[in-house]
Amino acid sequence: MPKQRKKRKALWPRILLVIVLLLGIAGIGTFIYVRINLEAVGNGEEVISFEITEGETFDSVLTSLKEQHLIRSDSVAKLYARFTGMNQYYAGLFELNDGMSTIEILSYIGNQENAKQEEKRLTVPEGTWAKEVAASISSLYPSYSTDEILSLWNDSEYIQTLSKDYAFLDADALNNDNYKVKLEGYLFPETYFLANDADLDTITRTMLDQFNIFYEEHKSAFENSSYSVHELVTLASVVQFESGTKQDMPAIAGVFYNRLNQDMRLESSVTVCYALYDQFDDPQDCETQTDVDSPYNTYLNNGLPVGPILNPGGDALLAVLEPESSEYLFFAADIHGDGKVYYSKTYEEHQRICEELGLILN
User: Fold this and answer.
1) How far apart are CA 53 and CA 45, in angstroms?
2) Residue-wise over 144-183: b if at least 16 C-beta within 10 A, else e?
3) Nearest residue to 101 via CA among 32, 36, 28, 27
4) What is the DSSP string of 1-65?
């Protein structure tokens, strides 16, 4: 009698099960990968003006978004857009931030109402002089000369009109013929997008509006200070000019307050720069010509300069509103090295530091 063969279990069900499991794992992995790469890159603190030019391809747009750190993956974004149909976009300027997810960005650039068209971009860097801002505006709007713009910013009647709309502008304080530019200090540093046909009043008010945003956010600090808004803006302009980094600003502001409280002259060489205005070619002139006769020169005059010496940014303004407390009366920056700022309580110590750094000591 022949032996009965044992039945062998079929392998295909097991193979199919393994394949299904692998596909499931791969699918889950793919899902997680895609989801992660669709998330926002940052927390929304960085705002970027993203430009899409006429005729630019979708691939190019995604590549630019990736290069500007607005999306995590251009390939995942392309895949998502293909399957969802979110591959429509418009030419123009879009205000994006790193807190937007890829899906939100695709949706935003796919809405024509979000695209800013026919605008001029005016960038006012921190620490810019009013005459430099005027020159930039003139280059964007050739019909307005730099002198014409500065003339408007020195017009007492115009400033009187502005002061009715902006609480931080003191028309009486600004009505001083010693000023180089009466609106110096209030042209808030920022990048602005202006209409092609914008007039000078609109452009001016756009910058003042930005200053007003900062003013309203810190209104209680301005009101609680023993100094007027104009004096605070003036001091902030000196701090802005003297500081290499925003981290230095509160400490430098504290030094200047200490000197003011002890009736010491500020003796800031940057005020000499502004006093010289068009009369210097080398920054060293600010260190060597401290005898220039000017109400801006804090080597010859007590207290603050007569007015702001540039347009300070928010960090400098915040520094004078929230200065760092210390007993320092002097500071010196290593301008020949890494820019580090050294502080001292006595003139003797300050003198030694300046000698070690190879700095001119007035």
Assistant:
1) 25
2) bebeebbebbbeeebbeebbeebebbebebbeeeebbbbb
3) 36
4) -PPPPPPPPPSHHHHHHHHHHHHHHHHHHHHHHHHHHTS-SS-S--EEEEEE-TT--HHHHHHHH
Q: Where are the domains of the chain?
A: 47-114, 120-217, 228-357
Amino acid at 112: Q
Measured CA to CA, the distance from residue 182 to residue 5 in angstroms comes to 107
Lowest mean pLDDT segment, chosen from 47-61, 146-160, 163-177, 228-242: 47-61
CB 179 within 8 A of CB 306: yes
Fold of 47-114: Dna Ligase; domain 1 (3.30.1490)
Helix (H, G, I), strand (E, B) or coil at 81: helix
pLDDT surpasses 70 at 362: no
Output Rg (C-alpha) for the chain, integer angstroms: 30
Dmax (CA) of the chain:
129
Query: What secondary structure does DSSP assign to 113-177, as a single string?
Result: GG-B-SEEEEE--TTB-HHHHHHHHHHH-TTS-HHHHHHHHT-HHHHHHHHTT-TT--HHHH--T
Half-sphere exposure of 161 (CA within 13 A, CB side): 9
Give pTM, 2 decimals. Answer: 0.69
Give the range among 26-35, 130-139, 183-192, 318-327 with minimum mean pLDDT: 26-35
- pLDDT (mean) for 323-328: 92
Q: Is the dihedral of CA 120, 198, 162, 166 positive or negative?
A: negative
